[in-house]
């Protein structure tokens, strides 16, 4: 009889030739548990998804209660479903007055796709601008925005009319013009190894978009829900986007994304043609119930207020001759080493010692640290001790 590992390799489509093959039996808080009493501290939170850790009891309860009431019905704006309405209302209460209408999606990539369509429909313009080293998803439109040639080249032809600028370069903003429907940008670039823009650059971008009638789309799929120390990263930049994108931790562990805008902009999807963007499962009531519980906990507890202190503690504790630099914003942290080969050895050593970490798509020499926001100071010290031990082992 074949083992589950063999069946996994035989029947689950592989995206690399070296999957981790950790067999997960259960998860709770910061911890993942294997079938043979193994356990790993999850230092990446499913890539910035499980901000409240795994199986938070309030989220689990919300999922169970909603599943008992009803699951899938018809989700794209036709039926009134309480989890959708309550979540949108709570989001609207903490967002600026120009971000009041929510379109729910299944994922971040679909939120990007929907926002691209919305920007073209509302402005009537053909061009969209992204940035080098930006990641917005792997679907065809999102991939066209993705700012790294290695990852997109084999899937051409991509969408026409997409241009890429240099992140944090004010001079490049002159290329935004009356043909530009939207500019898509991360308020912190994660996959480049955590690149933080200057406030001057972001404010100049906001000004240029306003001058040219271009929609500014902020991709907060990784940064949202408190990851950088405020509920949304744009709060620290003193700007407001025209369209806001959410996903990952927004769903509290369930699949959910959203693009959010004003009623004026969003209404353009409702006519000529009607049903300008539709989805079968986006805004699934069980996912919305989980997201509502997730947001309520984040607003009630002090986890977000503690993010900056916890991020700084990682930086203070991670001192080793092999570390070339650490770039970070809140609990988005990149530990830069000398090369990819040594980084992989360090990551494998950490896993063997009971700590799950990862690397970045566009910065393969850096270790990703993005733990659940609930991590404690003692757990940070424990994680740093393991990382230091792994570095000692590799860089003897």
Question: How is the secondary structure organized here?
Answer:
Elements: H1 4-11, E1 24-28, E2 31-34, E3 39-42, H2 45-48, H3 57-69, H4 82-94, E4 101-105, H5 108-123, E5 127-131, H6 140-145, H7 149-152, E6 162-165, E7 180-185, H8 199-212, E8 215-219, E9 243-246, E10 257-261, H9 263-266, H10 285-300, H11 307-317, E11 325-329, E12 332-336, H12 340-352, E13 355-356, E14 358-359, E15 366-369, H13 377-394
Parallel strand pairs: 3-13, 5-6, 5-7, 7-8, 8-9
Antiparallel strand pairs: 1-2, 2-3, 4-10, 9-10, 11-12, 12-15, 14-15
Helix pairs in contact: 3-10, 4-10, 11-13, 12-13
Quick overview of this protein structure:
With 396 residues, the protein is of the alpha/beta class. The chain is built from 13 helices and 15 strands. Helix content is 35%, strand content 16%.
Question: What would your notes on this structure say?
Answer:
By secondary structure, the chain is of the alpha/beta class. The protein folds into two domains: 122 residues, Aspartate Aminotransferase, domain 1, CATH 3.90.1150; 244 residues, Aspartate Aminotransferase, domain 2, CATH 3.40.640.10. The chain is 35% helix and 16% strand. The strands form three sheets. It has a seven-stranded mixed β-sheet with strand order 4-10-9-8-7-5-6, sandwiched between helices. A hairpin with a 2-residue loop joins strand 11 and strand 12. The model has no long low-confidence stretch (mean pLDDT 95).
